[in-house]
Amino acid sequence: MDMLVFGIAAAASYWYETEFFLFFGSAYVMCRFLHKWYMPLLESWPPERGETGRRVLGCLPPVSLLIILFVLLTMASYDVVGIWVVFYIIMGYAWLRGGIYMMECLDLSWPFDAVHLDNKAAVFPAAGGFLGVTLIYAGANTGDGPGWWVVLFTAGLGLTAWLGLALVLNLLTDVSERVSVDRDMGSGIRFGAYLLASSLILAYASGGDWTSTQATLTEFTIGWPVLPLMLFSLLVEWFYIHPSQSLGDNRLGANILPSVLWGSIYLAYAGIVLLILHGMPERISGGVLL
Predict the structure, then answer these.
(1) How far apart are CA 285 and CA 214, in angstroms?
(2) How many beta carbons lie within 10 A of that of residue 140, not counting itself?
(3) Could you give the count of Cα atoms lying within 13 Å of 173 in the half-sphere of its Cβ?
(4) What is the largest CA-CA distance in the chain?
(5) Burial of 102 (0-12, 13-18, 19+ CB in 10 A)
(6) Which residues of 41-73 are buried (b: 16+ CB within 10 A; e: fewer)?
(7) Range of 52-56, 203-207, 253-257 with top mean pLDDT
(8) How far apart are CA 103 and CA 110, in angstroms?
(9) C-alpha to C-alpha distance for 64 and 68, rounded to whole angstroms
């Protein structure tokens, strides 16, 4: 009996020690991330250069905080209270650092392009990508689960699928090059809207009550509507790679309003998908996402 009590106490000690290091490790990463995010915004010279980029990029971290906090207070597991809310917020910022770093595979340097180069087209994918990483993490916090590792596992599923599809879209259309090199505002609007719309669907797919690894992998397939969205976006981008003759040499400026329309269609599609999925009575394995 004494050995059993000792074993339980040792396991509990190891458990809290792991969370202790994760908490302060995430806090360190969060501080480094916010410093590296805001310094390029503050060091831009002259002050009016990249003003739009500075304002939008500067608002993204607090907006992410509000999103994560809202989900933790309203849709997270019943035991996420008090210090655990702070824990998951700090871990969320560390997650953002990793997600933003991984998005460099899309060949966009957002603070540099949007601020130092005053490329307004880069502001849209910067905002869409930042909020996309945030939404997937927030979605992974919905529902009941046994601990933080569940959040990281399900958020990892969503982030991997999201980045993979965005990478395919970029490789087949060079949309990031048209944003960063051509400063094509329309491409920036469409790509930013796609990143945000696809993240909404995958954020939902990443959420729900945890029952097992196999069940979670099965439930994640509920996010399959993101595939038609990516294919549709691919067709739209191919159209703009080979524009009709009527657009002429003014195509970079003439596609802004149509791009706003395309972006609205992407977001409307994601909203309709979420309404349909939320209206379904049960998940595939029976867990309900509230």
Answers:
(1) 10
(2) 30
(3) 28
(4) 84
(5) middle
(6) beebeeeeebeebbebbeebbeebeebbbebbe
(7) 203-207
(8) 10
(9) 6
